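Q: Here's a chain of 416 amino acids. Please give me its 3D structure as tokens.
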Amino acid sequence: MTIIASKNLNLIAGLSLVITACIPRGENLSQIAADGPQKIHAHLFAGANAQLQLMFSTPTTATKAWMCLGATSPRSCSATNAGAQPLNLAVSATEKTHAYFHNPNPVSPAVDLTFTVVATDKGGTNVASQTYKFQTPKPGLSTDLTPPLNSPMPRPIAGQDIMYDYPGTFSRVSPTAIIVRLWVQQGTLKSRRQLQFSGTLVSLRNSTYTAPITATVNVDANGIIDFPITNLTPETPYRIDKILISDSGDAISKVSLKFPYYGVTGGSTALATARKKITAQAFAEGYDWNFKNYDRRKGYIDNAPGGWCDQFWVWGVHEALKVRWPQDYGPNYMERNKTWLRGTDLQAVMNQEPIHGDLLYSTDEGNTHSFMALSYDVATSKLYSIEGNFNNQVMHNVRKVSPRWRWGHLNPSMVR
């Protein structure tokens, strides 16, 4: 976790207060987009009782705020709308407290949110305060990530006017952007050099946070559309729904794409880059299987006759992690690295670090099944996954978390 702002204040009567504004998992203040909630931690120590107050100087009734006693098991919570009456909470001098706020749709419109945390002693005297400003920008469009030169063309898909080119995004890693790369391979839009792209961006960490994406995009001589969506949260999988490609000058020429487009942001560590590589490759496989366009020469189907769910995970991670392909079996690999957690730990860990690329091993209903984690959705308390040998194919899934799952959580020592 990266501390964004911190101030240690010496107060009267031996009461000290540390007010820390921070964002889970190290996001930058300018990158709070389809994610949240955001947190303000207020820690009080020693000497006397105090009153902690959270006040918003930027009114926005869409933003909810609340404070709770306790660091790990919040209790005695109170809530308010930003811009309404100040939020007050009586705090023991030795009690750690958390204050939270969130905007139900923080990316549309963008909001600059200013708030002040005030501490008073039990007599009501103001003894400390600190003001913070958070910016919640709308995901932006830019050309910062240059498309690769001489990138190989994707495998054609029969009958599809426009298809996704995931392999053209594999080597391009940004902590705040995903690359959208499409191929106009045939149809009425093939000869156009500029088109309109529209869709709805969804964060897989919290599916209630969505943002409309509308862009005028260029089409190169090979029919490739390539552009980034920026100002996103690091190390987070995203999905774009309801994609429509059209020509603004021709109301008839438009193509609605059947399947969502998936992307994932990177981070600043080798493990973050490995997670991005693993997940992007899995997205590509899932897309090809939608059209039975997969390449059987990759081998993960034939190496485990009768059940290849685990081999899909091992194949998908072996270039990024120290996994032996095709000899390794995922659960045994995790056992060697002593990284097993319980399925019920997903939410707690997801608050601190990502899980995309992790291995889940299920024994529900007497059957064993291995699959790749994408994200825990705090809005639904369910897990997004991508799975091999699910209905005899690679496909996306949404699962209710089971306490019987064993969860292999990736760590830096696994990275090649």
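Q: Can you summarize the key feature?
A: Residues 270-290 form the longest helix (21 residues).
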